[in-house]
Design a protein that fits this description.
Structural class: alpha/beta
Oligomer: single chain
Largest sheet: 8 strands, parallel
Strand order of the largest sheet: 1-8-7-6-5-4-3-2
Distance between the termini: 7 Å
EC number: 5.1.3.1
CATH superfamily: Aldolase class I
Shape: globular
Number of strands: 8
Pathway: Carbohydrate degradation
Order of helices and strands: EHEHEHEHEEHEHEHH
Pfam family, one: Ribul_P_3_epim
Protein name: Ribulose-phosphate 3-epimerase
Number of helices: 8
Bound molecules: ribulose-5-phosphate
InterPro entries: Aldolase_TIM, Ribul_P_3_epim, Ribul_P_3_epim-like, RibuloseP-bd_barrel
Strand content: 15-25%
Amino acid sequence: MAIIAPSLLAADFLHLQREVEMVNKSEADWLHLDVMDGMFVPNISFGPMIIEFVKKVTTKICDVHLMIEEPSRYFEQFKKAGADHISIHIETCPRLHQDIRQLKAMGLKAGVAINPHNPASLLSDIIADVDIVLVMSVNPGFGGQKFIPNTLNKIREIKKLIVEKGSHAVINIDGGVTLENAAEIVAAGADALVAGSTVFNAADPVEAIRLLKQA
Ligand SMILES: O=C(CO)[C@H](O)[C@H](O)COP(=O)(O)O
């Protein structure tokens, strides 16, 4: 069964709290938190203060995705706020190996995220060192976009690379995951699914999470 990581839409504090409560009641495994800086991505979301609030009210693992420039400046703050996993982008980290080592030394699960235009081969020399590969299946920055079909090939290539390199990384797919495409994504080799709109725009988010989990 796939790991399910609902991604908070969090239009405001009231929604944030309600969304977390629904996730707590559900079969979700992780809670995915998208941190955006308005630089690496054309959108601003939230920082460590919100993670700290969420951590206090959730029973789930906090899977934090840093869509920000020079993320290592903030590792300590996000760790202190309660992040369990931190994923950083290959596109923002010229010293990626060092950053991953630092995250692991801090006792966090370390993930590398990769944008849709970048090939799986770019992960070749880092995949053995990471706990998570976060594959962007939309261009990062906004929820509610359509899944990019070529992601399925990329998942298969990453799975192959994981075996070849003896990596223990889990493959996490982020963007455009729906009840219709979830089974195909898992069949391609995904271990975890991030889902925002599919969960929180559903009439019954807890049931949407259950259905995704079955995929
Ligand atoms: O923020 C995103 C991209 O940066 C993601 O798309 C988000 O995490 C998931 O949203 P959705 O399921 O609606 O695509």
